[in-house]
Amino acid sequence: MAATCTMTPPDPELIREALRVLRPLIDTAHVDAYSDDDWPYDVLDAYQDALSLARDAVAAGTRSRRADPGMGIDIDVRDDAQFEILVALAPFTINAEARQGNRLVFSASDSGHSLWFDAELTNSPGTVEG
Predict the structure, then answer these.
(1) Alpha-carbon dihedral sign for residues 13, 25, 111, 45
(2) What letter does residue 33 receive in the DSSP assignment?
(3) DSSP string of 44-96?
(4) Are the C-beta atoms of 100 and 121 separated by less than 8 Å?
């Protein structure tokens, strides 16, 4: 079962809490460092950190030099600092996604107006409920 929300106005804490609940199940995640609106002041450091992750990935050879520097920035959800970048930016980005294997389990888009997550996973045995 999936939960889909279209939010006007956006609810940043709902998006953040969905990520926190799903974190133990997430294998891969990425975020776009673009927003339809100005980035809120309190996430500007996370925005800069996301761009740094993209630059570091290019330097390490794990990201193409031709890739848009702000699109599809990989997040290591096992790393607390990187996960916090995702949590900070997801409510405001044009796109953030998380997967368990090849299965999409979380998507936030439209600068906080759209949220989708796999609600079935949040009720599975051994998962944390928010």
Answers:
(1) positive
(2) S
(3) HHHHHHHHHHHHHHHHHTSS-TTS-TTSSEEE-TTSHHHHHHHHHHTTTSSEE
(4) yes
Amino acid letter for position 48: Q
pLDDT tens digit sequence for 67-126:
999 999 999 999 999 999 999 999 999 999 999 999 999 999 988 888 988 877 665 433
CA distances from 114 to 53, 99, 128 (A): 25, 17, 23
Confidence of residue 11 (pLDDT cuts 50, 70, 90): confident
| Residue 15: both structure tokens together | 């998006």
- Please tell me the distance from the alpha carbon of residue 98 to that of residue 67, in angstroms, as a whole number: 20
Task: List beta partners, residue 4.
Answer: 116
Q: pTM of the predicted model, to two decimals?
A: 0.87
